């Protein structure tokens, strides 16, 4: 009869355990309500007068969830080195107290405060470390059996699973929060970046367009995103080339030249021509290439560089090319000739009597004489010819396409004729030139070519004919007066 009753009790307990497990599995609760449900069911199944979940906090355990008679003792702390909870934490094993009045492992004062005579403690593990204890209490000694121990272990497993789920959820939420924060910081950085930031997909359509891009090109993000970038910022004559570059990126497995800095022409919304320096980067996004350009306007910089270069290559007084500018032009012309380019003639001119003008009338008149001399030379040459002041009163004319001395001398005669009128502000001053002519003969270099013309000019000056003042010098050292 007793055995039958015990069998019925075990079956009834088993049925209640199964129902409880089913309830816990289906429970869709946050961690704290779930833990409360566990200890409420645990107290019900073990017929105990209280249950709690205590977490390790430093050198103590603290009651964080409680049910039954000890529900009013949330936050109660018990030292790890003088309690059954501490033994459970240190050993990582279930601990059973049959009678708190005789068990030396328990904190007897705490047990008397709570009215506890017997209890079971089961460890709660997270990542291999015991971080808490699940406990049931009774106000009677020897109130629990082996079935209650097993029950506590099952419930501890449920709590551990919930803690792991919570930890995983917290980690995911933290990672998502960091990602969101990182994305927000990146968006803020891009939005407030000094450079225009433009990203395009494999079809060349804009996927990102920041405020600096709007300021630079005039299109708002709403207008730009989704549109072909070529239609917005690329000059019409370059759109085919840009389309080819985008197609090459789109079809490439690897991009060896994906990171580069270049200066490109561009246009803004109003069609204004720009020069932009672009740092181009290619990245894989969802298995596809995305190109991002960091661009800033260097139009003013380029214009300033051009002005500075022009200043470096020009004569400040006359506005003609200076020696450096002339030698660059001469070397390029010689190089073109070597590749089958046009023949070259070089005229070397000297303003006769310049020192006397300076000494007798002053430097301001001397400067005016040089400026007038320069303008009159320019009036006698063709549009593509290069006129330069090498320094002092020495000038040169580089004329491409002149194949004979007769053609070159015609230019010189025209210059001699242009010098006959007096200086407008000083009628007593008349400008005269000595002119040397050299026709280029390979393999002379630019410097030798210039020396030949210089030599011819000195020959003209030394044998000056008051009417002509022109001498020509050929590479074969023949003079023609």
Write the layout of secondary structure elements.
Elements lengths: L1 H25 L4 H16 L3 E8 L2 E9 L8 E3 L4 H8 L3 E3 L10 H7 L3 E9 L2 E10 L7 H46 L4 E5 L5 E4 L1 H7 L3 H4 L4 H5 L5 H13 L8 E8 L5 E13 L2 E10 L1 H15 L9 H16 L5 E9 L1 H8 L1 H18 L5 E6 L2 E7 L4 H14 L3 E2 L2 E5 L1 E8 L6 H17 L7 E4 L5 E2 L1
Parallel strand pairs: 17-18
Antiparallel strand pairs: 1-2, 1-6, 2-3, 4-5, 5-6, 7-8, 7-11, 9-10, 10-11, 12-14, 12-17, 13-14, 15-16, 18-19
Helix pairs in contact: 1-2, 2-5, 12-13, 13-14
What does this structure look like?
With 481 residues, this protein is α+β, with helices and mostly antiparallel strands. The chain folds into three domains: 11-169, GAF domain (Beta-Lactamase, 2-Layer Sandwich), CATH 3.30.450.40; 196-299, Beta-Lactamase (2-Layer Sandwich); 314-480, Alpha-Beta Plaits (2-Layer Sandwich). Helix content is 46%, strand content 26%. It has 15 helices and 19 strands. The strands form four sheets. A six-stranded antiparallel β-sheet has the order 3-2-1-6-5-4, sandwiched between helices. The protein has a six-stranded mixed β-sheet with strand order 13-14-12-17-18-19, sandwiched between helices. Strand 18 and strand 19 form a beta hairpin. The longest helix is centred in the middle third of the chain and has 46 residues, at 146-191. The protein is rod-shaped. The protein starts with a helix and ends with a strand.
Query: Mind telling me the CATH class of the largest domain?
Result: Alpha Beta
What kind of oligomer do you see?
Answer: single chain
Q: Which percent range fits the helix content? A: 40-55%
Fraction in beta strands: 25-35%
Classify the secondary structure makeup into a structural class: alpha+beta
- Strand order of the main beta sheet, please? 3-2-1-6-5-4
Tally of DSSP helical segments: 15
> What is the CATH topology classification name of the largest domain?
Alpha-Beta Plaits
CATH architecture of the largest domain: 2-Layer Sandwich
Average pLDDT for all residues: 82
Distance between the termini: 151 Å
Overall, the morphology is rod-shaped
**Runs with pLDDT <50, length 5+?**
465-481
- Biggest pleated-sheet summary: 6 strands, antiparallel
- CA radius of gyration: 49 Å
Number of strands: 19
CATH homologous superfamily placement of the largest domain: Reverse transcriptase/Diguanylate cyclase domain
Overall number of domains:
3
């Amino acid at each position: 009869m007793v055995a039958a009753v015990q069998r019925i009790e075990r079956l009834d307990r088993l049925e209640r355990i199964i129902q409880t497990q089913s309830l816990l599995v289906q429970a869709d609760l946050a961690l704290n309500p779930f833990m409360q449900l566990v200890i409420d069911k645990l107290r019900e199944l073990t017929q105990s007068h209280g249950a709690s979940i205590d977490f390790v906090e430093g050198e103590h355990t603290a009651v964080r969830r409680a049910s039954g008679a000890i529900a009013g003792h949330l936050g109660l702390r018990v030292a790890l080195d003088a309690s059954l909870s501490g033994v459970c934490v240190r050993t990582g094993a279930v601990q059973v107290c049959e009678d708190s009045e005789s068990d030396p492992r328990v904190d007897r004062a705490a047990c008397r405060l709570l009215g506890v005579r017997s209890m079971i403690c089961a460890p709660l593990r997270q990542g291999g470390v015991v971080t808490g204890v699940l406990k049931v209490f009774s106000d009677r000694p020897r109130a629990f059996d082996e079935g209650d121990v097993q029950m506590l272990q099952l419930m501890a497993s449920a709590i551990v699973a919930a803690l792991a789920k919570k930890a995983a959820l917290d980690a995911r939420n933290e990672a998502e929060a960091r990602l969101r924060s990182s994305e927000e910081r990146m968006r803020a950085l891009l939005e407030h970046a000094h450079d225009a930031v433009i990203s395009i997909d494999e079809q060349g359509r804009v996927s990102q367009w920041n405020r600096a891009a709007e300021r630079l090109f005039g299109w708002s993000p709403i207008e730009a995103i989704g549109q072909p970038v070529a239609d917005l910022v690329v000059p019409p004559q370059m759109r085919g080339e840009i389309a080819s570059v985008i197609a090459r990126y789109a079809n490439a497995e690897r991009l060896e030249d994906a990171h580069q800095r270049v200066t490109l022409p561009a246009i803004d919304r109003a069609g204004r021509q720009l020069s932009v320096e672009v740092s181009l980067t290619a990245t894989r996004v969802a298995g596809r290439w995305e190109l991002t350009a960091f661009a800033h306007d260097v139009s003013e910089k380029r214009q300033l560089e051009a002005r500075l270069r022009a200043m470096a290559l020009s004569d400040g007084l006359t506005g003609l090319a200076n020696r450096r500018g002339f030698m660059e032009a001469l070397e390029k012309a010689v190089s073109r000739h070597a590749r089958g380019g046009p023949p070259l003639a070089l005229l070397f001119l000297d303003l006769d009597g310049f020192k006397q003008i300076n000494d007798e009338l002053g430097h301001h008149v001397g400067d005016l004489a040089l400026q007038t001399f320069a303008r009159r030379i320019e009036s006698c040459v063709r549009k593509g010819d290069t006129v330069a002041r090498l320094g002092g009163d020495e000038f040169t004319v580089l004329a491409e396409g002149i194949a004979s001395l007769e053609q070159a001398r015609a230019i010189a005669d025209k210059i001699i004729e242009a010098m006959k009128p007096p200086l407008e502000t000083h009628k007593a001053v008349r400008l005269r030139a000595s002119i040397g002519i050299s026709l280029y003969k390979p393999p002379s270099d630019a410097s030798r070519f210039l020396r030949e013309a210089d030599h011819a000019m000195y020959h003209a000056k030394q044998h000056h004919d008051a009417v002509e003042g022109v001498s020509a010098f050929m590479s074969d050292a023949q003079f023609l007066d």
